[in-house]
Amino acid sequence: MVRLILLTGVSIIAVHASTAMAQATGTDVGADDRLSEIVVTADRNERSLQDVPISISAFSAQALEKSNVTEAKDYLQFAPNIVFTEDGATGPRSIDVAIRGVGNIKSSDLVTTSSAIGYYIDELNVGAVANGTINPQMLDVERIEVLRGPQGTYFGRNSLGGAVSINTVRPKDRFEAEVSGSYGSFDTWDFRGILNVPLAEGLYVRGAYLHSESGGVVKNVNPNGAPDSGYVDNTARFALRAEPGSGLTIDASLSYTRENAGLDDTVPSGVIDNDTKQTLGNANLMPISQGLGFYPENQRLVNHNAPEYNRNRFLIANMRVKYEGELVDLSSVTGYLYSRNSRLFDQDNISADIFNRVVKGHTKSYSQELRIASKPGSSFKWTFGGLAARDYLEQFSNVYVGSARTYTDPLTGVTTRYLPDRFPDGFPLNQRNRTSKVNSYAVFGEGVYRLGRVSFTLGARYTRDKVQATQFGVLASNVPLPDAGASSSFNDFSPRLVVNYDVNDDVHLYTSVSSGYKAGGVDINRSVVRAFKPEKLWSYEAGFKTQLLDRRLRVNGALYYLDWKNIQVVSAFLADPNDISSSTQLTLNASKATSKGAELEVQALPMRGLQLGLNAGYLDAKFGAFPDAVVFGGGQFDLTGKRVPKSPKWNLSGNAEYGFDLTSSADAYVRAEAVYRSSLEGNLDATAAPLQGLAPFPYLSPSYTVVNVRAGLNAGPISAQVFVENLFKKDYFSGTYDHFGLAGIRLKPHPRLWGLRLTWKTN
Fold first, then answer.
1. DSSP per residue over 478-524, as a string?
2. How confident is the model over 306-324, as pLDDT tens digits?
3. How many domains are there within the chain?
4. Is CB count within 10 Å lower at the N or C end of the chain?
5. What is the pLDDT of residues 606-652, one digit of tens each?
6. The dihedral of CA 725, 57, 151, 598: what is its sign?
7. CA–CA separation, 542 vs 558, rounded Å?
8. What is the spatial distance between Cα 448 and Cα 377, in angstroms, rounded to a whole number?
9. Is 413 exposed, middle or buried (0-12, 13-18, 19+ CB in 10 A)?
10. What DSSP designation does 169 have?
11. What are the two backbone dihedrals, phi and then psi, of residue 310, each rounded to the nearest 5 degrees?
């Protein structure tokens, strides 16, 4: 019924569009047919993208809308040297991001305590505790900035590789309303609404709501399990802005997201990994297809008996206060984040009830940041600030025995035993209950001195982190282990030096040296306590930013070299090879790695109505001395000189868009996009696969090229868009999901998708 109402409303809007008045196409082209200025807040000040000496990719609201961006992976694919894998660590929307090769390094779908990439929504750090990197649905977003390289001074907390900053639209002093609906492949549809109301002089409110559903790509042929990988998601946000006068501005917001999904949208590869073979004590295990086949022939069907589910909840409360005084500006950012996730999935990956896995967890994060800054206009500008934050993570993970110990193949009649009868139903094979608490304090400052066309920037951040970890209620061989706890403290000083030279108003050159830091921690497994060191990274970068041909051509680029030490590598193994319930997770420190590469971003307006874009990244990231890497089921391997996971040599994207007038009151556009990524290893298991004599598939994610096409119509308050993504139905996967299972390592297919979106908004 809801879908019928949506489609009826969409039809009415479409009829009304024929007589509506004209509206801008929403491109990043100004009224004078030149490239519009892009304003960013990478250094906590509103400045033109071209004036900031940092390698940044920025996406405006119009660009996000035209590319049908609904989540992080949709825009990250267009940023040079930003790579993600869909690893399923915390559900079907889970992605693992690396910038210039720097990210979280782990085996399979293990969860890390801290992230190497900073994630921010309206200046609030929402990724400090990686119980699942928040991958928010795009709702009422004004701008997204992706910053490459360590961002220690302003973003600080665990922004070792870079930062992703999402800025939502703030309440405005005028009435605005927007209604949008879409329908597409696999019975996927959404409805969103936005309302902005000025309540009084200096007091405005804004609300936004998004409901999205999908029938899911993957279907389950087993009536006892979850029917499909479909989802039902809801997100709501309420924001208030108060401007009482005397230079004071208060922005407060509250957002809540509720995600409910069925089974993971993955299919089996038919390749049994070494972890499964070792755990079950059978090196000759053969994959079970149950007549469905394996990827790539089978990209739609699974046979799971478990009632699988994935549920996530996010609550974010944020308050920003700014006071613009006569002598200085004061800013405060206060935030609270609560997230909760629970999931049940069929660990054996077949119809027999042999193994199931339950994961539950929640996080709480509090933070308070204060900044004081000089007034603009002088040759010397400065900013000082401080941060206090507390993050808490609680996670429960249990792989347990089901009711079956054997499986009989219906095609051959052969029965295979996987577990001895001595294991009772519900026996915990792999149990991990843990908490992690991080108290973080930091002070930072930066000064910029301009001397003619040259400016010098010197900044630094001092951080102190105290990490506490506990293990509780864990069984090993069905015997309770004693609870355990430990703590450790870490200090860091991360400086930054930048020299910027303005050749003229349109050509800027810069070079920088900066440092980044990721806190250490404590592993507690089977009552064994082991601390691991913090990561440290030094970045050396030189870049240029240019606007040429009367602002019809923009070319930005950078060269960089990263020196990355004490890399935290998360892996797991059987502490006792004869005890399948002895799985242990630990974090090792690889000695070092280096990453070098280049980035180029080009935007051009060669003729009226035509826009062209090109983004290119070259990346060479390799481990230094790492002779004792531990991987799932494969023992120790020397990965010295091997490529760091999530480090493709090349990543390229391009787009072409042509806009034209249909009548005096309507215009339209057509747009094509292409994305290329060379092969990569998604995790540590993949990096070590050749050393174990394993075939490349599915450990090595092969190179791929994906083409998307879009077209849109704008007529007054009405706009319509149609799109086809993965036009040529390229079979590809970005990484591997959970490795353990009797049908093989899991992969996420990417079929062709089509859709239609209709939008009404006030002028």
1. TEEPPPEEEEEEEEEEEEEEEEEEEEETTEEEEEEEEEEEE--EEEE
2. 999 999 999 999 999 999 9
3. 1
4. N
5. 999 999 999 999 999 999 989 988 887 667 899 999 999 999 999 99
6. positive
7. 6
8. 12
9. exposed
10. P
11. -135, 120
Instruction: Evaluate whether residue 739 is within a structural domain.
Output: no
What is the pTM assigned to this prediction? 0.92
672 falls in which pLDDT band (50, 70, 90)? very high
Q: Which residue has tokens 């974090």?
A: 587
3 state SS of 11? helix
**Tokens 């980044």, residue located:** 516
How many whole angstroms separate alpha carbon 344 and alpha carbon 346? 7
81: exposed, middle or buried (C-beta count within 10 Å: 0-12, 13-18, 19+)?
Answer: buried
- 194: exposed, middle or buried (Cβ count in 10 Å: 0-12, 13-18, 19+): buried
Which letter does DSSP use for residue 681 in this model?
A: E
Distance CA 170, CA 135 (A): 20
What average pLDDT does the chain have?
89
Q: Which two tokens stand for residue 60?
A: 């405006």
708 domain residue, yes or no? no
Query: What's the N-to-C CA distance of the chain in angstroms?
Result: 31
Residue with the two structure tokens 């030094």: 538
For residue 268, give the CATH number of its domain. Answer: 2.40.170.20
User: Which of 380, 414, 420 lies closest to 401, judged by CA?
Assistant: 420
Q: Is 607 within a domain?
A: no
701 touches 85 (CB < 8 A) = yes
Nearest-CA neighbor of 516 among 490, 534, 537?
Answer: 537
- What are 152-167's pLDDT values in tens digits? 888 877 799 999 999 9
In whole angstroms, what is the distance from residue 508 CA to residue 458 CA?
Answer: 18
Evaluate whether residue 100 is within a structural domain.
Answer: yes
**Do 217 and 265 contact (CB within 8 A), yes or no?**
yes
Q: 351 φ, ψ to 5°?
A: -80, -15
Question: How far is CA 489 from each of CA 36, 110, 463, 586, rounded to the nearest angstrom?
Answer: 47, 24, 11, 19
Query: Looking at residue 5, what is its pLDDT?
Result: 37
pLDDT tens per residue, range 237-292 = 999 999 999 999 999 999 999 999 999 999 999 999 888 888 888 888 899 999 99
In the structure encoding, which two tokens stand for residue 199, read together? Answer: 């309540």
User: SS3 for 387-423, per residue?
Assistant: EEEEEEEEEEEEEEECCCCEEECCCCCCEEECCCCCC
Domain range holding 533? Answer: 23-589
Q: CA 628 to CA 557: how far, in whole Å?
A: 37
Q: Are 354 and 401 in contact (CB under 8 A)?
A: yes
Tell me which amino acid residue 218 is. Answer: V
